[in-house]
Amino acid sequence: MTNQAPIPVIVNGAAGKMGREVIKAVALAPDLNLVGAIDHSLEHQDKDAGELAGLSEPLEVPITNQLEPMLGYVAGDRQSPPGVIVDFTHPDSVYDNIRSAIAYGIRPVVGTTGLSPEQIQDLADFADKASTGCLIIPNFSIGMVLLQQAAVAASKYFDHVEIIELHHNQKADAPSGTAIQTAQLLGELGKTFNPALVEETEKLPGARGSVADEGIRIHSVRLPGLIAHQEVIFGAAGQIYTLRHDTSDRACYMPGVLLAIRKILALKSLVYGLEKIL
Ligand SMILES: NC(=O)C1=CN([C@@H]2O[C@H](COP(=O)(O)OP(=O)(O)OC[C@H]3O[C@@H](n4cnc5c(N)ncnc54)[C@H](OP(=O)(O)O)[C@@H]3O)[C@@H](O)[C@H]2O)C=CC1
Ligand SMILES: O=C(O)C1=N[C@H](C(=O)O)C[C@H](O)C1
Q1: Atom of ligand 1 nearest to the CA of 13
Q2: How many CA atoms lie within 13 A of 230 on its CB side?
């Protein structure tokens, strides 16, 4: 046990499904100090972040939409370790959020998906110049890291693979960040998957899903009742090998989020993927 002051943590997207879960996890961690709760939702302005997250006691941290003043306030606190901002907002705003945080020297732990490869490269350059750690993690669950590792192992032996990702129907982006990352990891072997055997015609556009790197197809399902699920299906003559991950509670992401908050202070550049910090 060290006597170090707790790490100041801001949660952006604090009123959302993931934000509320992060508020609870941070509040219960003795080495972390929730100092700010940002959300642009007008419905929740000034509400106590702890009460909104379902904690029995208020945390005395009000929800506010004032991101830049909060970043400035935390950056100005010289008594505490550098601040960390956890972002679970929206694909449209996450790029600007990360740039603002890095500009203030606040370390971004990013769960929000939907960043383009160009945006990620630009953010990596910006974090490098600022010598500031930045973590972009498409999926914080350990089960998904294990699925991806098993998929990479299998891909040496199978030439045919497709991905199906299934999510709740409030998800803004498709395909999921996790499915894109899974295809990238499979593609890193330098192999081209799914060599065409016949000329295919889509009678309805999109019937065969989207085509990611190295020819891997991704199919996106959106339905109420789902949380987050992914299948990676390998096929070869006479056999099918299916890997599947299911989430039943967003609490599954919290060990990964807390690990990222603790690890980011030692980083000086952008790191993409939970597997890199385990
Ligand atoms: N990496 C991972 O392991 C995981 C990643 N995700 C990703 O996290 C993101 C959020 O997911 P989820 O919590 O389900 O979404 P929600 O819609 O439930 O929550 C997002 C919250 O952020 C608010 N918000 C949107 N834009 C801004 C902004 N510019 N500034 C401040 N607040 C904003 C929203 O307000 P309003 O509703 O009023 O717009 C909402 O309260 C998604 O991209 C999702 O894919 C989700 C689960 C796990
Ligand atoms: O929106 C979600 O819910 C999730 N989003 C992430 C993604 O796009 O991969 C992670 C997880 O699948 C849940």
Answers
A1: 22
A2: 23
